[in-house]
Amino acid sequence: MTKTYLPPVDSIERNWYIVDAADQRLGRLATEIATILRGKNKPTFTPHLDTGDFVIVINAEKIDVTGKKRSQKLYRRHSGRPGGMKTETFAKLQARLPERIIEQAVKGMLPKNTLGRQLFTKLKVYAGSDHPHKAQMPQTLSIQTIPGGQH
Fold first, then answer.
1. Sheet containing 139-140, strands listed edge to edge, beginning at the edge strand earlier in sequence
2. How confident is the model at residue 149 (pLDDT cuts 50, 70, 90)?
3. What is the spatial distance between Cα 124 and Cα 37, in angstroms, rounded to a whole number?
4. Which has the closest alpha carbon to 57: 39, 34, 89?
5. Is the pLDDT of residue 1 over 80?
6. Which pLDDT band, with edges at 50, 70 and 90, does 150 fall under?
7. Number of Cβ atoms within 10 Å of the Cβ of 14
8. Per-residue model confidence (pLDDT) at position 5
């Protein structure tokens, strides 16, 4: 009987990638980031282990969405108190906290368990083009969008 390959925990190599979110589609970008965080792009992928890499996202305030989502997409949060539901459109949240848009999109694509919460800590999102992770020497990761896509 063949056993499933388990990579030794000390041999898992974690790289740092930097992604520029300027003029990228939100969903397309989030799926690529979630794949890298999870480690699905590696041959050593194991579903129950953290084999993924770190991802730094810059220019989060320049993320793009298609159609009327800028004015119609709603973000909800609840304080936990009665009547504590707050709703906000994409445009208002982008003006106030642009990092949260990408964080929520990626978080929804990760597992909903302890592993997913651990993977989410490896995502670093910044509104501007500068970040404090120069020492990790991140590699630039270019994510291609479909040419001629709708706006």
1. 123-125, 54-58, 16-20, 139-140
2. low
3. 11
4. 34
5. no
6. low
7. 12
8. 79
Bridge partners of 30? Answer: none
Kindly write down the DSSP assignment for every residue of 84-117, as one continuous string. -EEEEEHHHHHHH-HHHHHHHHHHTTS-SSHHHH
Rounded distance between C-alpha atoms, residue 45 and residue 48, angstroms? 9
- Please, what are the domains in the chain? 15-66+93-140 (3.90.1180.10)
d(CA 30, CA 25): 9
For residue 46, CA distances in Å to 7, 36, 112 come to 8, 13, 16
Grouping H, G, I as helix, E, B as strand and the rest as coil, residue 41 is coil
**Quick one: tokens of 66?**
């298609």
Residue 101: closest CA among 51, 45, 46, 30: 30
What are the b/e assignments for 36-52, b being 16+ CB within 10 Å? bbbbeebeeeeeeebbb
> What length is written for the chain?
151
Phi, psi of 94 (to 5 degrees): -65, -35
Q: Which two tokens stand for residue 116?
A: 């997913």
Half-sphere exposure of 77 (CA within 13 A, CB side): 7
